[in-house]
Amino acid sequence: MFDSIANKRAKNLGKGFNLNNWLDAFWQQDYPKEKVYLFNDLEIMKSFGMNTVRLPVLFEWLAEMEPPYSLKLQSRVYSIIDEVIKWCSELKMNLILCNHHGPILTNDNYKLHIQRLSALWKHLTEKYINLPKENVFFEIKNEPNNLITNENLFIVQSAIISAIREIDFGENSRTIILGANNWNAAWSLAESNIYPDENLIYTFHSYSPYQFTHQGLSWTNLETGLVFPINKNEINIIRQDFYKVKNWSIKNNVPIFLGEYGVGTGADELSRCVWIEEFSKLIKEIDIPWAYWDIKHIKDSFGIFTEEEINPELIIPISQSEGENILKL
Fold it and tell me: What is the largest distance, in Å, between two alpha-carbon atoms of the chain?
């Protein structure tokens, strides 16, 4: 594979985690909550070999909805983002600023949103233009759903890329992260066309099998009690999905990034361990960077902490200076 700037930066993403249920949590009455994550949380994860932070933010709701779509810089959210930027800088960690949630794109309305999204990212590019290009990334749209085709999504995201490149261009421009429709599904990405911009990382998410990973969560209404794996075929289906997108990346000489994967706390501890271990083996096998969702929240979520302490029963892959191993946390 040709070692483009995007490929080099993708390799440096390595292992990461999401700071979710925070600046993406529009459902909270007191949004944004203070001190959901602290510098110490990043320090802990850094000590376990994590070197990338993915920060989901309600950027689309933190800008005016009418032209010129200016950023609402008076919002406390932007000062919190500045804190996270400082933490990552001090710890020498990569940071992904991810546009999470916003008006839903559909095949009927996508043309109406192109100007707004392009302006939003132009403003964000101007605001963050001086951040290090090699380790601060822009993810332009999280999980476009199945109401918009990849062909129409291509039009939207191409316009956003062009808006960013009006300001940030050249050989050392910032790397942009983007994915496909169907909630960034691996199979959907594997059926997508690549964009003409060479400084891109393509992302996908996986929570397969959904009925297992999302059981017991309040917004799914799925019953608990499912174990993993039910049979070996369940693991093989996940493997096929991952290899499909890996082969697509090799064919097109573009880097891929597993931006989200996780299993909810509604599943039993043993099954959660097995699921994480199987995913860890597969991720290592196909050699791609990843970010787990999430680390801290244990109620109605996906966390690996228990009352501020790391859950000792969960197993996740940790990169040690001596090499790869599996560590019980």
Answer: 54
The answer to whether 285 touches 233, Cβ cutoff 8 Å, is no
- pTM recorded for the entire structure: 0.94
- Give the residue with greater pLDDT, 41 vs 177: 177
Omega of the bond prior to 289 within 30 degrees of 0, cis? no
| pLDDT number for residue 323 | 34
Strands 323-328 and 315-320: antiparallel
Helices (H), the chain: 5-13, 39-47, 76-91, 110-127, 150-165, 181-184, 186-189, 210-213, 232-252, 269-286
Write down the pLDDT at residue 328: 34
d(CA 318, CA 329): 9
Domain boundaries, the chain: 5-328
Query: Contact, 283 vs 15, CB < 8 A?
Result: no
Task: For residue 44, give both structure tokens.
Answer: 């802990």
Q: Tell me which CATH code domain 5-328 carries.
A: 3.20.20.80
